[in-house]
Amino acid sequence: MLTLLLSVVLAVLQSAALGTAAPLASDSLPLDARGTQYCANSPSTVAGATTPALTPRSLLTNTFHPVHARSTTTLWCASQSSTYITVTMTSSTSQTGLGLALTLAYLSIGLNHLVPPAADTLVPGSGFSYTEDWVITAQNANNHQTTWGVLAAALGALSDYVTSQDLNGAATFGIFDGANQVGQGTVAVGSGPAPELIE
Questions:
Q1: Alpha carbon 106 to chain centroid, angstroms
Q2: C-beta neighbour count of 17 within 10 angstroms
Q3: Structure confidence at residue 140 (pLDDT)
Q4: SS3 of residue 128 by DSSP
Q5: Least confident of 14-18, 34-38, 172-176
Q6: Contacting residues for 7 by C-beta, under 8 A, at least 6 apart
Q7: How far apart are CA 14 and CA 135, in angstroms?
Q8: What pLDDT does 64 receive?
Q9: Counting Cβ atoms within 10 Å, is residue 94 exposed (0-12), middle (13-18) or buried (19+)?
Q10: Using N-to-C axis directions, what is the helix angle for 98-109 and 148-164, rounded to 10°?
């Protein structure tokens, strides 16, 4: 009898611990009753699960309303990946070309770090910086490390997001690989000479 009672108490304590260990989510992110987060660009896909092939410049353009500065955080998933971002637009600007700058940063990573014989290695501790009319930075977060492949997927998702929503402005973004936040970044209007990578 004592064994049965201890088993029940242990089961209750384990379920209570699991219930309180769940990550907190922003009220503006899409959640279901269990607290599961879903991709804004693929509403049936749980964030962190490998997404299906998503159409760039999402078909949701007509139903997903553009955000305005400081209004919301959006969870956007990379196509065919477990990588997703949470992005908050912090200001808007009349300068255009953010989507193009993000695409160029994405291609730069691909050409410099992902094309064989290069391997998908860790982004160095100093992080990533790209300047092409816009300043794009990223660094590790939460005692995790970002790989070049995850960073490229995150920048591809961010490019898709700002292009499909016709956004130009400063932003902050979190980079997630599966369930873990592995990086964080910023985008701001800037200028400089040629594109550069900090390595």
A1: 14
A2: 9
A3: 94
A4: strand
A5: 14-18
A6: none
A7: 46
A8: 40
A9: exposed
A10: 160
DSSP conformation letters of 70-106: TS-EEEEEPTTSSEEEEEEE----S---HHHHHHHHH
The residue assigned the tokens 């209007």 is 189
* Beta carbons of 146 and 182 less than 8 angstroms apart: yes
Q: What's the token pair of residue 133?
A: 């009319």
Residue-wise pLDDT tens digits, 83-113:
999 999 999 999 899 999 999 999 999 888 8
The two tokens of residue 169 are 């402005």
Location of structure tokens 């260990």: 21
Element (H, E) at 18: helix 2-20
The C-alpha atoms of residue 174 and residue 154 are separated, in whole angstroms, by 9
